[in-house]
Amino acid sequence: MPLLQVEGLGKSYDSETKVLRDIDFEVEAGEFISIIGPSGAGKSTLLRCINRMVDINEGYVTFDDLDIGSLKKKELRKMRTNIGMIFQHYNLVPRLTVIENVLHGRFGYKTVMQGVLGRFTEEEKEDAFYLLEKLGIEEHAYKRCDQLSGGQQQRVGICRALIQKPKLVLCDEPIASLDPNASKVIMDHLKSITSEMNITCLVNLHQVEVAQNYSDRIIGLKKGEIVFDGPKLKLSEEQINHIYGIATKELITV
Ligand code: ADP
Question: What is the whole-number distance in angstroms between the Cα of residue 244 and the centre of ligand 1?
């Protein structure tokens, strides 16, 4: 049984345009998959359908044996503890410290009161420090997040997603706001820590080369449809041109 099954998924935000059409794919536990495609292709919407941040209009998403589209509020909250999310703009609370932001990743397991009071167990705090150390930012634990660089903030975002102990992590353009050096650091960490923790990873990326460097399997989206799904070695220049609708040479300089 795959960890994630997407069958005939369709999504529209209004009656005129279908943002996703007939999306079918399966993800086995432990895979690290890049989803590529130009801006507006529907990459972000696809991730948002998987964890039901937006409602699904057609088809099914089955995650961990659960029909995501039919979950009620409470079940949805429980299901989301198994899906971590990493965002382009980090989505941290800037005035809070690094460690506080990381521990926010545990909110899904707490009552509202425990969350408000910031009650965390020793084990949760140890896990937080373990992750901060793994990502090389433990020395910043008590700094406010707005004092960190973009790359460091994204590392906090990764720690916050992983402290949930999710089965799946959805990364929505995690390096789109970072320079090439910081991007490499983030992708290296993402790849190594998800593999070490045996967490399945779906990463939306704009850059083909990054996808080819880090993932074995690539899914190409164009205008809301999957136009490529296969091993990176099978992704030809022609296919890349087709996905992006521009010459490959132009892409490499992006
Ligand atoms: P990508 O992540 O590949 O850039 P998106 O999923 O963000 O693509 O967007 C796909 C299409 O859906 C775009 O045309 C975008 O304008 C539209 N879209 C995305 N989010 C919304 C929304 N909340 N309401 C209406 N349209 C949206």
Answer: 16
Q: What is the pLDDT of residues 31-66, one digit of tens each?
A: 999 999 999 999 999 999 999 999 999 999 999 999
Q: Helix, strand, or coil here: 84?
A: strand
Dihedral class, residue 105 (left if φ above 0, else alpha if ψ from -120 to 50, else beta):
alpha
Q: How far is CA 76 from CA 2, 52, 190, 223, in A?
A: 20, 8, 25, 28
253 close to ligand 1 (CB < 6 Angstrom)? no
Cβ of residue 222 lying under 6 Å from some atom of ligand 1: no
The structure tokens listed for 65 are 């044996």
> Ligand 1 atom closest to Cα of 39?
4
Q: Which residue's CA is minimally distant from atom 5 of ligand 1?
A: 42
For ligand 1, the distance from its centroid to the CA atom of residue 254, given in whole angstroms, is 21
45 lines ligand 1 (CB under 6 A): yes
pLDDT value for 253? 46
- Check if 171 has its Cβ closer than 6 Å to any atom of ligand 1: no
Closest CA to 173 of 187, 162, 160, 185: 187
At 136-189, the pLDDT tens digits run 999 999 999 999 999 999 999 999 999 999 999 999 999 999 999 999 999 999
Residues 229 and 240 sit within 8 Å (Cβ to Cβ): no
The reply to whether the predicted model has a pTM over 0.90 is yes
